[in-house]
Amino acid sequence: MAEVFEYPVRVRYMEVDAQGVVFNAWYLTYFDEAMAAFLACRGLPYPALVRAGYDTQLVRSEIDWKVGLHWQEEVVVAVSTARLGRTSFTLDFEIRRDGGEVTCSARTVYVVVAADGSGKREIPELLAEALGDAAQGAAAESQSAVSS
Predict the structure, then answer these.
(1) Considering the entire predicted model, what is its pTM?
(2) Among 94, 92, 89, which residue's Cα sits nearest to residue 67?
(3) Who contacts 65 (Cβ-Cβ below 8 Å, separation ≥6)?
(4) How many Cα atoms occupy the beta-carbon half-sphere of 125 within 13 Å?
(5) Spatial CA neighbour of 106 closest among 74, 58, 72, 73
(6) Are 77 and 11 in contact (CB under 8 A)?
(7) How many Cα neighbours within 13 Å face the side chain of 27?
(8) pLDDT band for position 139 (cuts 50, 70, 90)
(9) At a CB cut-off of 8 Å and minimum separation 6, what does 95 contact?
(10) Angle at the Cα of 100 (from 68 to 104), degrees rounded to 5?
(11) What confidence score (pLDDT) does residue 138 get?
């Protein structure tokens, strides 16, 4: 992952299943929250995107689990831009424990749509700027949602 943003998450009681680990559906929630924080950190709060007439729809997500998360565990969701297309973009996610252990990784494709429901749109400049350059490889620097 390149130019990584990190979003802190603390596992809540209601997110843990009968096996004692976070139920799989919650990971998509973590990624969604991290995506919104990623854009906000880069100058585009999600409500501003919608006010500008745009929204996004998740069209594909692939998740690879390595190890489960437990109640009250504190982790970060790392986010980076993997690809920018004409009407879609792809984000990479990793859930990392303290010390950098990756417990889960994902790649999610989003399509830009009109906020009024009238269909697919090209990626607007304000969103392209917030997403930044798509890059691959190890992160050189991290931004954090808890930085001052």
Answers:
(1) 0.89
(2) 94
(3) 24, 103, 104
(4) 0
(5) 58
(6) no
(7) 26
(8) very low
(9) 9, 27, 30, 69, 75, 76, 77, 78, 102, 103, 104, 105
(10) 35
(11) 33
